[in-house]
Amino acid sequence: MATKKKVSAEKQTFTCASCGVLNCYRRAGVFPSFCLTTGTPDALKTRAKRAYLGNGRDAKMARAAAEVEGTYYGRLTRVEEIIAFANRIGAKKIGIATCIGLIEETRVFVKVLKANDLKPYAVLCKVGSVDKTEIGIPDSLKVQKGSYEAICNPVLQAELLNQWKSDLNVIVGLCVGHDSLFIRHSDAPVTTLITKDRVTGHNPAAALYTSGFYYKRLLESGRNL
Ligand code: SF4
Prior knowledge:
By secondary structure, the protein is of the alpha/beta class. About 40% of the residues lie in helices and about 10% in strands. It is built from 9 helices and 4 strands. The chain has helices at about 1-10, 25, 40-50, 55-70, 80-90, 105-115, 155-165, 180-185, 205-210; strands spanning about 95-100, 120-125, 170, 190-195. The protein has a 4-stranded parallel sheet, sandwiched between helices. Strand 3, helix 8 and strand 4 form a beta-alpha-beta unit. Helix 4 packs across helix 5 (about 80-90) and helix 7 packs parallel to helix 8 (about 180-185). The chain is globular and about 60 Å long. Iron/sulfur cluster binds near residues 19, 23 and 35.
């Protein structure tokens, strides 16, 4: 009974995901009653807006991102957009936090960055070579049981790039959670070139696109993942 009550209470929580008008974008219609634009106190909205004004780092990044979007909308690949963004924020030293499974893609990306007069520095996820059991991960959770298997080490990836004083860091295929740790420990702003999805060829949206049929299981509750 308690669970049922909790579920129905949660159903009453409306967010932007429930919104059918998305009126904050063009203001061509009306805001819904539960709107997160009209429902947010002015002081909070003003504080956020202030971050984009002036010449601070956030403001420069916001303007650079908008300039890349507005100039090249739908015409540049993400690889190229990262270069365009780096140029606009004055980033020369580009750190790359790469997954071992995507090292070949990283090697190509390094060539692309060099061809565009940027300075890349790549650090592999397995850097430091610490066996999983050393941090309390049981052998049974290794991909290849009984073998030496290094942890992904996003904290060290970030520290090495921090020491190198990268201007912008790019994630190439870090795992879910390892990417969170990397972002938490990175001094430089972080963007993502490749979002790892081992099943869909690194296209996580594919599972959502096909959730009406092939990936129906995504919508099943109680899967205990
Ligand atoms: S901010 Fe308001 S209008 Fe915009 S998507 Fe959210 S609920 Fe809809």
